[in-house]
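pinned: reference chain
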Amino acid sequence: GVADRPTCRPGASVRNFIDQVTTGETNIMIIGPDCSVSTEPVAEIASNWNLVQVSPASSSPRLSNDVTFPMFVRTVSSDAEVVVGIVNAMKMFHWTRIALITQSENIFTFISTDLKQELVAANLQ
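pinned: its structure tokens
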């Protein structure tokens, strides 16, 4: 079956997942959710049903943890890859400082913390 597609609403995504796996139909995999904040809770419980979960757009670096999310795969790279690109661009253009504007959600604080560490390691600010 095809579940409703609640975008960026973790509770609704978990509810849709539970509704789908308890229909009595045989499920072998799920696709989605598209948003990392909704994907993380679904990915944590999907392995309990031995279901592969494929997300077409979730890019949270946290989802790369194979212990926490053993049945999760995605079709986009992790946002952690952006950090490498930013540091390399700064070096290529001989920039020494960067301003970072971010939101206070977990996914963004993880990336900003990682970026700050990489900037310090590269002698950049």
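why pinned: The radius of gyration is 17 Å. The chain has a mean pLDDT of 87.
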